[in-house]
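Re-run with default settings, no changes from the original entry. Doing this only to confirm the output is reproducible before filing.
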Amino acid sequence: MPRKTILLSNEMTRQIDLLSKKEDRDFSNSVRYALRVGLLAIENPELTAGEIKDILEAKAELEAGMAE
């Protein structure tokens, strides 16, 4: 995976830290997750962020064999 450096505001850093704690992820994984949700929201403006999160969770459950 290529490494890139990005600059985040202090407020955004605090928000990502909070997301990390809520979602039990490290900082880098929280940034990746938030970016993934954000990009999907841009590509699918008819969906809310909550709906996108639900879809990602359902996909993960399906891939893990926990759903049909």
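Helices lie at 10-23, 27-43, 49-63. The CA atoms of residues 41 and 49 lie 6 Å apart.
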